[in-house]
Design brief:
binds acetoacetyl-coenzyme A, Peroxisomal Thiolase, Chain A, domain 1, single chain, alpha+beta, 15 helices, globular, three-stranded mixed beta sheet, eight-stranded mixed beta sheet, 40% helix
Amino acid sequence: MTSVGIDAIEIWTGKLRLDLPNTFAPVKGDDPEKYTKGLGLHNSSMPDVYEDIVTMGANAAKRLMERKGLSPQDIGRIDVATESAFDNSKPVSTYIAGCLEQVFEGDFHHANKGERKFACVAGTQSIDDAYNWIKAGRNRGRAALVIATDTALYARGDPGEATQGAGAVAMLISEDPSVVELSTEQGYGSADETDFLKPNQQFPSVDGKRSMKVYLARMREALEDYESVAGRTHPDDITYIPFHTPFPGMVRKAALLGYRHMTRDTEIEEELAAELGRQPREEDFDSWDAYEEAIRGYMDGLKDTDRYRDWYARTIEPTLTLSGQLGNWYTGSVHLARTSALKTAAETGKGLTGEKLLVGSYGSGAQAEIHAETVQEGWKEEIEALTIDEQMARRYDLSFDEYEQVHDVHNHDKEIDVEEFTQPVGEFVFAGWGRMNERK
Ligand code: CAA
């Protein structure tokens, strides 16, 4: 059977930078270490005034198509995942296709276009749709373009303001992929939750503390469901676990949960329990709170053991490097985490072909999804072609006043004349409501 997966990845970051410990924390009266150590964030990417989800997505897709030598005829579907959509009728993929048609010969009239919404998990769902379309043999030899694009902004003064970000990840899903092959091993944890909502409003209403509990509860369900398909997974059999990363501190909690889950009732757990002098209480739990309470003592000790710290340093830390510099990209976030791990491996000369990844996606509202991937032979060449380091280095460093002005512009109900901080070169730019995005 043909292998299907991610053949190419391109990343586009918002072109402004908000320095959290040095610019944001002092004005908020916070200890900078709350950001760098507690949340694990150093910088957030912000969109310049001419950037939005369409321009960032189109710029990432354009670069991907140019690098891979693709024309519109090679693409049979364009799926955009976003929770920052501005049009309740036309999908964002039509706007992006319109941009790309200004640059590439031919058009996308033959391509199926859609928009996926389920908070941050929608990027992974779009990959699934593309996978199923190809596996069903409906693709007629064509590949799918999946674009996860978001401006993850919160109202000023909301605790979430510390975890903002903006950017797009474009991925080509095809047969015989170069980066990772997707497997059919997959598990879900899904429930109707109201911790994070955006009903016809620009910035979300969030119960931040509850959202963290919901993330962990759904992720645990997804792990259980995944095991019902794939069987028990030994933590050392997985090379990296890229989790959805709203901020690295959240992943510290998810990783601990995942490790405990994978090692429960095993020799590893027996050895660790003996070392710690604490047993995780084993019984049936009717709620996340009961589960959390029962294992709290054991988990507190577990995270400081050499065995766990070594596993975390190998399996999780490499997934967090980009997030700490870019912030939360919502739908793109878990795909940044995967890229971050592969990039670290490429930089340190680690061989990855044939290695297994477990990808933990999550969207508020709420759904977690876990699936396995296998790294393919062409991964290194693809990852080395990324320009994210140059893009990060080029970001304009905002003062707090400038940050507030830009933030107001992206809160669409205010019309404010603000200068552009960066110069677009050969890029798509937002030209105003009701007008086509232009290339500059
Ligand atoms: N030095 C070191 N660490 C410090 C510190 C200091 N001086 N001050 C605080 N910290 C630590 C805290 O102990 C805490 O760590 P632990 O959770 O491990 O204890 C961490 O820094 C954060 O501090 P607070 O809990 O006090 O932070 P907060 O209450 O101001 O905000 C938040 C945290 C509620 C998550 C907020 O950022 C938020 O609302 N974010 C948006 C919602 C979100 O991202 N939720 C995540 C799950 S939902 C999801 O994943 C979907 C999505 O993309 C949004």
